Amino acid sequence: MSEPLLHGFFRSGASYRVRIALGLKGIAYGNASYSLRDGAQRSPAYLALNPQGLVPALEIDGAVLTQSLAIIEYLDETHDGPRLLPTDPILRAHVRAAAQVIAIDIHPIQNLKVLGWVKALGGDESAWAARVIEEGFAAFDALIAPHAGRFCFGDTVTLADVCLVPQLVNARRFGAKDIPARLLAIEEACLALPAFDAARPENQPDAV
Amino acid sequence: MSEPLLHGFFRSGASYRVRIALGLKGIAYGNASYSLRDGAQRSPAYLALNPQGLVPALEIDGAVLTQSLAIIEYLDETHDGPRLLPTDPILRAHVRAAAQVIAIDIHPIQNLKVLGWVKALGGDESAWAARVIEEGFAAFDALIAPHAGRFCFGDTVTLADVCLVPQLVNARRFGAKDIPARLLAIEEACLALPAFDAARPENQPDAV
């Protein structure tokens, strides 16, 4: 079986999630980089791989997988290493819900495409993104409050942490205010782990 | 154990997904309705239940679960009835990815809150929503093409169908064009099933 190949971009938050998961699972992989600002992810060659024209996509185990959460759950179900979802069904649902607050209710509303549309309407892209992130983080913080320890859910890294850390990069880029202190403390604990540190945008081969 | 209680709204696409899943699993449940246009989901009583102020939330098995996909995976993991995710890990990833094209890349970008922001910028809400849906459906159709049968993945209902059918309601509401014929055929097959039919917005007690 050849080494998995991650089609991504150093600055893509969804690619960052998958890089963290691959690192936590101890899976060596190659990188193919697509500059999103140049539209490289819309090239015919990449569209043949992922008709959605979005990164990331992961070539692994003879398949091309898309959508970062689906990829990460696949890795969690099929590869050794720390479990990113707890075994208790109720707790699994809470972890997935927290991850989805970020992956569904924050990230897609502040991605490059949507911000381009906001700009075309004469809107302030950063203000739009900051508002989405501030409202989303307030909800995320309230949802994890009963569960949080060193990480979002106790003292074990979960899918919620894997989504939180990349979103904090975007929060800073867009000048989001009032980031809950709990989230910053969790970020610090995560980035102290080699898998998170190695996955940081600035540590990627395609970083500019 | 008391009967599960679904906090939702007849017109909410995410609530519709959960209603379908509850029906497919044969789970009887009660309804609590929140008129989204009136902001009922932002009432202090509901925020105490779900700090995100979004429907649906499901009270079940002594917990309050939020986020429709997390709720549905919980039901799939813990309750009898047809499996909404295949057992093969690669296929599970493809089904989740298709569901996420709708739940991540379409639905949140055309929800009531975001459309309100678009309107405030002087944008055309329906044109914005239609564009999101048309682009998303084109990608969804391409992703399921290698797998589709009577339903999105072969001849068995999956999470992808549970997400598709409610999104088609929004597609029509916003005047989306060029809906792939395959998706309309799958919709027809789904709505012939009692669980889908019973979950339709117009068949809810709070429908107006």
From TrEMBL, chains A, B:
Native source organism of the sequence: Novosphingobium sediminicola
GO term, biological process aspect, one: glutathione metabolic process
GO cellular component, as recorded: cytoplasm
Residue intervals of the GST N-terminal domain: 2-83
GO molecular function, one term: maleylpyruvate isomerase activity
Primary enzyme class: isomerase
Family: Belongs to the GST superfamily. Zeta family.
Protein name: Maleylpyruvate isomerase
Positions of the GST C-terminal domain: 88-208
Pfam families to which the protein is assigned, alphabetical: GST_C_2, GST_N_3
EC assignment: 5.2.1.4
Keywords: Isomerase, Pyruvate
Gene3D superfamilies given in the database record: 1.20.1050.10, Glutaredoxin
Keyword Isomerase found: yes
